[in-house]
């Protein structure tokens, strides 16, 4: 049994959503030292309960009273909800690890994948941003390539699953697929077009320069996390009829020549990357292989025959895990391991927890 003073009181803001449910699974699987647990969602979920470590917890709406008793808020209720509550959360002395895009590009807010730039968490001001799901899996690979041979330019095309757009988008893919197979009318409400048996080259809104906001996020967040503000990156983001797992075709122009074998060796040194690259045996990662798994999977590593020092790769990961919940919990673990967060119970005068 853990000492209550070594535990953190945790709130999940958005506990009934796809990322929220994954956060619960990851906290359980990694045995994160949770003291009190608060599942929070909107008034729509008022009568629901959420199961955590074999106990049912009532879902409640967020409140100042709750945040006063919380050490860390894992937020996955969207940008507007995070923006609404952030000041209150910080005032109450809790740290918010936010999955939305609300604070990612704020220079005062660290945007972190711990294995890539965990050092950026030092001196945080109570707000920490979790990157976009496509960015997280990409930077894990790019960081290693940069150290190996220097990144000059990155071209990424994403094939993003519908879970990246939340639980309603997953239901829409399932409903549309059933309707099509049964000859019934196909209804589209969440996605901009029919997603079943189709793909959509639009994720989020279009910007003035013709990129989508999702593509702009991948470009800007990659530069911020890698601390390479001038890095040439371009992206085309596509929604595909897959439930879980984002795939990326990545081409990197490098400063120095490097062989596919060297790339394979360097990537395989990472504890969070798995190489599946025996194409002659049909071994390469697909989203179905990666759903529910923690690693970033890399395959199809080959020389780009159109460029002098170019390498092509295929990168697949569970967008709800490394792209959201797992990365958020790893950030919380990093904060604990490096004494960058302290349980409120620990800072009481006599060291006795405020409540049990
Ligand atoms: N899915 C991914 O791969 C992924 C990856 C990275 C980041 N993100 C980000 O994570 C966030 C959530 O994504 P998701 O896929 O989990 O969405 P989701 O399945 O639609 O879940 C949204 C959650 O937010 C809650 N919520 C909505 N309005 C609220 C309010 N006013 N107050 C409190 N709670 C509220 C919902 O509660 P109710 O059930 O009561 O409506 C639900 O729990 C988004 O910002 C998304 O961009 C998602």
Written account of the structure:
The protein is an alpha/beta fold and 356 residues long. It folds into two domains: 106 residues, Rossmann fold; 186 residues, Dihydrodipicolinate Reductase, domain 2. Helices cover 31% and strands 22% of the residues. The strands form three sheets. The chain has a six-stranded mixed beta sheet with strand order 9-8-10-13-12-11. A five-stranded parallel beta sheet has the order 2-1-5-6-7, sandwiched between helices. Strand 5, helix 3 and strand 6 form a beta-alpha-beta unit. The longest helix has 17 residues. The two termini are 14 Å apart.
In short:
This protein has 356 residues and is an alpha/beta fold. Helices cover 31% and strands 22% of the residues.
């Amino acid at each position: 049994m853990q000492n209550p003073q070594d535990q953190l009181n945790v709130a999940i803001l958005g506990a009934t959503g796809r990322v929220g449910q994954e956060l619960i699974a990851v906290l359980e699987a990694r045995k994160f030292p949770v003291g009190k647990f608060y599942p929070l969602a909107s008034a729509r979920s008022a009568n629901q309960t959420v199961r955590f470590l074999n106990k049912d917890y009532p879902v409640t709406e967020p409140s100042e009273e709750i945040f006063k008793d919380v050490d860390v808020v894992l937020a996955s209720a969207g940008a507007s909800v995070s923006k609404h509550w952030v000041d209150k959360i910080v005032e109450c002395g809790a740290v918010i690890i936010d999955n939305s895009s609300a604070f990612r590009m704020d220079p005062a807010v660290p945007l972190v994948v711990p294995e890539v730039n965990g050092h950026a968490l030092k001196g945080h001001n109570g707000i920490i941003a979790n990157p976009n799901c496509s960015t997280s899996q990409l930077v894990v690979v790019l960081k290693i390539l940069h150290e190996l041979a220097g990144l000059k330019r990155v071209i990424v095309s994403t094939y993003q699953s519908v879970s990246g757009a939340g639980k309603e988008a997953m239901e829409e893919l399932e409903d549309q697929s059933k309707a099509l197979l049964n000859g019934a009318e196909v209804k589209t409400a969440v996605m901009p077009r029919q997603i079943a048996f189709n793909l959509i080259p639009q994720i989020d809104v279009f910007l003035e320069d013709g990129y989508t906001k999702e593509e702009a996020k991948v470009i800007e967040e990659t530069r911020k996390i890698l601390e390479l503000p001038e890095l040439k990156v371009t992206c085309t983001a596509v929604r595909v009829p897959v439930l879980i797992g984002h795939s990326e075709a990545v081409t990197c122009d490098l400063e120095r020549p490097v062989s596919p074998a060297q790339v394979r060796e360097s990537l395989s040194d990472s504890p969070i990357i798995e190489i599946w690259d025996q194409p002659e045996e049909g071994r390469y990662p697909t989203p179905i292989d990666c759903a529910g798994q923690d690693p970033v999977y890399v395959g199809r590593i080959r020389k780009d025959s159109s460029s002098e020092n170019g390498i092509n790769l295929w990168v697949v990961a569970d967008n709800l895990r490394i792209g959201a919940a797992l990365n958020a919990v790893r950030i919380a673990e990093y904060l604990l391991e490096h004494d960058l967060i302290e349980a409120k119970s620990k800072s009481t005068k006599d060291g006795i927890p405020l409540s049990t």
